Amino acid sequence: MNSRDRVLTAFDHREPDRVPAWCGASDEFWAKCKRELNLDGEGLRQRFGDDFRRVSAKYAGPEIELGEGVESVTVFGVERAGMGYGQPLSHPLARATLDEVHGYAWPQTDWMDVSSIRAEADAYGGQYAILGGAWSPFWHDLIDLLSMEGMYLKMYDRPELVDAVLKHLVDFYAAVSRRIFDAAARSIDVFFIGNDFGSQRGPLLSEAMFRRFIVPHLKRLVDLGHDYDLKVMLHCCGGFRPLIPAMIEIGLDGLHALQPSCAGMEPGRLKADFGDEILLNGAIDSHHVLIRGAPDSIRENSRRTLEIMKPGGGYVAGASHDTILEETPLENALAMFDAIAEFGPYDR
C-alpha cells in the first residue's frame, strides 16, 4: 500500500497497513533539519515518513510595495509586521459602511497562477496523498479587516456587514480553488483549508454564532471540494470541541492538528465521540512533550496516542501543531516519527 492508498483508506474509516504520518514544519525547523541531516526537502519528508505532499498556486498579481515598518501585505490589503506571520498594523474595514465594503478593492482571482499545479502534483507519480486548493483563512481575514473587537460587536450590531465581508472573502477563495481544481483536480486528493476557531480554553465564538456566521461559508468550501470528488480537511487550532458537530453536519471529512492540551480536546474523548464520523489528524502533544521532552518520553507519548487513536482507521498521526517549531530538537522530531513507524502498523 503506497502513501496515497494509505491516506484514502484512513479517510474511509478503514484500517490501512499502518497509520498515515503527517509532517508540518516551520521554515526555520525545516532548514535546520536539512542542514543537520544533510538532506533536501524530499529526502527529509521520506526520512520522516510523511504520507502527504502539497501543491499551491503562486501569487502573480500586482507588485506590492511595502511601506516603512511593514513586513508583509495580505492579498486583501492588510499590512502586517512582527514575529512569525506578524500582526495587522491597521484594519481597513473597521469603520466601513456596507457600500464601502462592497466597493473595497477586493483581489482578482487571476492574481493566482495555477498553471504549474498539475505538473507539480503529477511529478509524485501517484505515490502520495496530494493536498491542494486555496488555504482560505477567511476567519482570520475577517478579523484582520474589522479588528477582533470590532468583528464581535458587529456580529450583534451590524450582522449584515459581517455577512458581506465574509461573502467577499469566501467568493475569492472559492473562485481560486475552483480554478485550481479545474486545472488539476484529477491530480489532487485533499482540499486542505485552515481557520483557527479555538483558544486554549475553548471556542473563539459560541456554537450559535459559529452556525450563524461561519458554517454557511465553511459549507461552501466543503461542497466545492466534494464537487470535484476531493476529501476536505480543515486545519483548526485550539479547543473547538463544541463546534465539531456542526462541522460533521456539513460533511467535513477531516480535522487537522488536534491539540490535546486544549480544553475538550482529549484524544480518547474525540476518538470515542467523533472518530467514526470524521478523520482525526494530529494529537501528539507538541505544546509540552515534543519541545520539552526527551526522546524516550516522546516515543512513549506517541505510542500511547497511537494506541488510543488508531483502532478502526480514521486517524493520521502527527504533531498537535500545524508546524513543528524551530526550537524543537531534531532528535525529538525523529523520535516521534520513528515511533509512528514502529507503533503505527495494524495487526493483520
Explain what the structure shows.
The strands form three sheets. The protein has a seven-stranded parallel sheet with strand order 1-7-8-9-10-11-12. Strands 3-4-5 form a three-stranded antiparallel sheet, with no helix packed on it. Strands 2-6 form a two-stranded antiparallel sheet. It has helices at 3-11, 27-37, 41-48, 98-102, 117-122, 138-146, 148-157, 159-184, 207-227, 244-249, 267-274, 289-292, 295-309, 330-343; strands at residues 52-54, 58-59, 72-73, 79-81, 87-88, 112-113, 129-132, 190-194, 231-235, 254-258, 279-284, 315-319. By secondary structure, the chain is of the alpha/beta class. The protein has a single domain, classed as TIM Barrel (Alpha-Beta Barrel), CATH 3.20.20. 44% of the residues lie in helices and 13% in strands.
In short:
With 348 residues, the protein is of the alpha/beta class. The protein has helices at residues 3-11, 27-37, 41-48, 98-102, 117-122, 138-146, 148-157, 159-184, 207-227, 244-249, 267-274, 289-292, 295-309, 330-343; strands spanning 52-54, 58-59, 72-73, 79-81, 87-88, 112-113, 129-132, 190-194, 231-235, 254-258, 279-284, 315-319. The strands form three sheets. A seven-stranded parallel beta sheet has the order 1-7-8-9-10-11-12.
